[in-house]
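hey so i finally got around to running both of the ones u sent me last week. sorry it took forever, my laptop kept dying halfway thru and i had to restart like 3 times lol. anyway pasting them below in the order u listed, first the sequence line then the structure token line for each. didnt double check formatting much so if smth looks off just lmk and ill redo it

first one:
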Amino acid sequence: MPVSRLRHIPGIGVDKMGNAADALASGEMLRLENLDTDIRPPAEALAATRAAVDDDDANSYLPFLGAQAIRQAAAARVGRDAGVAYDWQSQCVISAGGLSGILNALLAMLEPGDEAIITDPAYAGLLNRIRLAGGVPRLVPLVVADGGWRLDLDALADAAGPRTRVVLTMSPSMPSGIVHTAAEWDAIARVVRDTGAWLLHDAAMERILYTDGPVRHPAGIDGLAERTVTVGCVSKEYRMIGWRVGWVVGPRGIIDDIGLVSLTNVVCQVGIAMPGAAAALTAADDGVAAATAEWRARRDLILDELADLPVVRPDGGWSMLVDTVALGMTPGEASKRAFDLGRVAATPMTGWGDDSRAGRYLRLVFANEPRDRLRGIRERLRAAWNV
């Protein structure tokens, strides 16, 4: 019997799919199960990381809240996106990856039993971290409209209540790829103001946009700067998954608390990774625009090939969802058949929200396979699913 804090925390499924694909060791397998990418990090980041391996200053616990260069760069990055001036010494701490920053923030914000509003579907790792911190996820459905995702604004208003302590946002979100509209951000801001909750914003993918619109950062909304905590990382936009460097930026008081949690939890970050992360954030060309153009082309290829299937268009991010229940299969069955018969590894969304909603979908990640390998995915799925 697990301890109580683990009883309602399922796995995320990605590890099982990845392990199965690794064990098969087949070059024919399309790896659409895991959130990796084959596009290289910025050259400056690679050079700075190589140099850090030989730098004794990088082989240190200190400074506990992160090296000065990465704290300065992260505070400036969030400040540019939000239109808010942040002091790097008092309003930014570095975390061992973005999700470590999310957990540290939740531990600093939530009392046991407090509620955190989050979309459905949402990344299972975010849901599980709410639970691990003693919180209760309040799921707000995403609905399909005009082939893409929209936030159910009535359900959002209904989810707010006296126990609402956090509104956890991600735009573009994973796994859906929703990019919030101005109207959706206004509705979210209303909930934050009315409840006095923290807005905890996962900004891991905020520039990976296919809408041709600007980045909308919630801290830039009138009255929200003092309620918004932003968590970013180099994993997605900068293609630096293995570096495990993230940042948390926000108002002074809560950042002090998050820094205390960080010091108590992970102690410090990856020393030899921080110089590379700082170099990525300050590079003359960080490669995000070119990478996003390639990811968009891969998305468009899959959408074109699967146009006759119930696929929901993502407006950003690295993944899209297929409603396999509409095809007469559970996502688990569809995943197994795709793996065995079509040589496509894809993760069911069981546990990524309410299983009657999120649990209808199979996720396809398009960030790690080039277009020449993605071509023909429809025939693979036709052979696997007979549809």
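and the second one:
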Amino acid sequence: MNATVPTAAKVPDTRGLAGQTAGETAICEVNQTQLVYRGYEIADLAANASFDEVAFLLLVGHKPSASETAEFMCEQGSMRAIPASVRDAIVGIVQASPQANPMSILRTGVSLLSHLDCECESNDPAAELRKSKRLLAQIPTIIGVCEHARAGKTPVEPDATLSHAANLLWCITGKKPDALTARVMDVSLVLYAEHDFNASTFAARVIASTETDLHSAICGAIGALKGPLHGGANEMAMEMLKDIDADCAGGAMDVEAWMKRAFAEKRKLMGFGHRVYKNGDHRAPILRSWGLKLVPGLGASGQKWFDLGDAVQAIMLRDKAIHPNVDFPCGITYFCMGIPVPQYTPIFVASRITGWAAHVMEQHANNRIIRPLATYSGPAVHSWCA
């Protein structure tokens, strides 16, 4: 009788640390069915909490009372102005290099703020919380200065009386948003605020683990989020939809044909798939439903983009069994709100700064430098003089 030859076990693909646990956190849990911020599920937060409350939850560590929320929002309003030197530097960069990436400009803005923050070099927990609050308040102002400079306009001053979401829209557009628009932006910020050890957060924790300062870690996180495989996906998803709309105008091609061509060309379609969520990103339908609330005020021009998005989503699910992630409805929603596409990822920063800062503080509170090993795949050792 012939012996059975054992089948070699398939070696899992762990590139990008896929499937690996790199540490623990009390800030966030991500699994197939839930996204939880400090014990509160994302659908619950999106329906019942404001971003300002969620920001407090992530940074301070507990659900705020009504008085704590009011005090936090008042404090945030008082911190929103940025030094004139930082504002002028951002305007100067845009004027000298109009094609400069807004994420790179935002990264530079945060770096400039670090030099003017008297607590920059302190990793004391209280100092880090104060710095985190200041960055949360000032980042929308930097984004607004950048966008107005790009449009050749004078930046508006931040409004201390508005919520974080409403002030962000005001800084970018120069228009005070109506209640619905502000609420839709608020929900999007809640959904984007935190996501455990994603690429940018993990980058921030690695940097923080060297015991460097919070601003340095945040600059690194912004650099990581800039990448199209991470934060830039919402921008590229909307650009894809604009390409589809342009190619299908006039009837020479329909969405089915466009998608078939994209599949044949192996084009990467942004806004779909997720490293963790294999059965769909549960943030996506939440944001889509809120985005659709804007359509009655926009008419056919708004409905068109959601219809196009739904058609693309249906084909991806039918032919590739791939679900959309939160970036897909985000691109459509922000576009319908009149937000310039290059500012989509900076808006992500205006939310995720809360998660990043919380993780930096958590890392510093129980620190060990993050230094993994690597499997060597280079040539065998041989003599230099051989």
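quick thing i noticed on the 2nd:
The chain has two domains: 28-227+342-365, 233-336.
anyway thats it, ttyl
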